[in-house]
Recover the amino acids of this structure.
């Protein structure tokens, strides 16, 4: 029995150290060395204080700010500990009603806007935490934000263009706008 148990325990201890201690330390160290911003959570600092992450959306509801995608998390929006989709298909009456309500809220916030509402302003992302909107969704909100802040429309439009992230190598992915970074840049406009 001793001849079988001892090698098994030694192998268990060695593999525990390698896979449970050494490997995670090496991977964490490599991530921090090669990708320090991402490994630290992509935290955005303002005056040395964290204001959010560029990877997790935030709930903006003031007309003076750009609004992000609706969040499917509960019990509060953009709750990173409750990341999940709404799990509602396109024919689900609850989703149809929610989208109608979101469209009505957008139209009520900007009654003069007759442009079609971009789909990403009325539907949640798969994780419910998406910090990005499409450039079309940002442009849809420009007039409301400019009016609420008393800024020239052209200045806010230029800011949206400046904050638009282009696809990698012009082909990988879609153009997108990080709502938190856009709203932080908006705070500096005069």
């Amino acid at each position: 029995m001793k001849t079988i148990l001892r090698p098994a325990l030694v192998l268990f201890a060695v593999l525990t150290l390698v896979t449970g201690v050494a490997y995670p330390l090496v991977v964490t160290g490599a991530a921090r060395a090669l990708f320090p911003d991402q490994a630290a959570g992509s935290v955005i600092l303002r005056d040395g204080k964290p204001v959010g992450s560029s990877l997790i959306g935030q709930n903006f509801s003031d007309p003076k700010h750009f609004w992000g995608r609706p969040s499917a998390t509960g019990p509060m929006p953009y709750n990173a500990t409750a990341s999940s989709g709404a799990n509602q298909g396109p024919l689900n009456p609850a989703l149809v009603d929610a989208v109608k309500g979101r469209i009505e809220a957008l139209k009520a916030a900007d009654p003069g806007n007759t442009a079609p509402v971009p789909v990403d302003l009325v539907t949640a992302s798969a994780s419910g935490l998406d910090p990005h909107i499409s450039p079309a969704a940002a442009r849809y909100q420009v007039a409301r934000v400019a009016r609420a802040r008393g800024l020239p429309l052209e200045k806010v439009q230029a800011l949206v263009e400046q904050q638009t992230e282009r696809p990698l190598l012009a082909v990988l992915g879609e153009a997108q706008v990080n709502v938190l970074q856009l709203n932080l840049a908006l705070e500096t406009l005069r």
Strands lie at 43-46, 49-53, 132-133, 164-165, 176-178. The first strand starts at residue 43 and ends at 46. The chain has a mean pLDDT of 90.
